[in-house]
Specification:
This protein is α+β, with helices and mostly antiparallel strands. The protein has 2 helices and 5 strands; from the N terminus they run H-H-E-E-E-E-E.
Length: 134
């Protein structure tokens, strides 16, 4: 079969599709029109710069605003590990140092580490305690 034997399809006009795909553009601007456009843009930039300078004049960059200090959390949490399970107690005392011995009731515990409280949204420190062998 030769290419001459193929029938060409009739071209269908689709004006909506052509308008959507091919946007007519304005003729290119001349030198004088470009100068006018650039002058308009320059005026807008100068206006924006002057507004920005007025805003900056009202801000004191030397002293940033001070945040109120968070109140110090009173006491600490005691996360206690026993052979029978774990328990968490609150204590109003100061946080002990790792290695210190702590008496709770008639039991003696050793502070293994100090870390953040295991409770969510609790800013207190937590002493992790291990029960000493009797």
């Amino acid at each position: 079969m030769k290419s001459e034997d193929l029938q060409r399809r009739r071209v269908i006009s689709r004006p909506n599709l052509e308008r959507a795909l091919f946007v007519e553009s304005a003729p290119p601007a001349t030198g004088a029109a470009i100068v006018v456009l650039l002058e308009e843009v320059l005026a807008e930039v100068r206006d924006a710069v002057s507004r920005l300078q007025r805003l900056e004049d009202g801000i004191d960059f030397a002293d940033p605003p001070k945040r109120p200090d968070a109140p110090a959390a009173a006491g600490h949490m005691q996360f206690i590990a026993r052979p029978s399970g774990y328990s968490v107690l609150e204590s109003e005392e100061d946080v002990p140092e790792p290695g210190e011995l702590v008496m709770i009731g008639d039991e003696t515990f050793q502070v293994t580490r100090i870390a953040a409280s295991p409770l969510p949204m609790d800013s207190r420190r937590s002493a992790f305690l291990a029960q000493l062998a009797v």
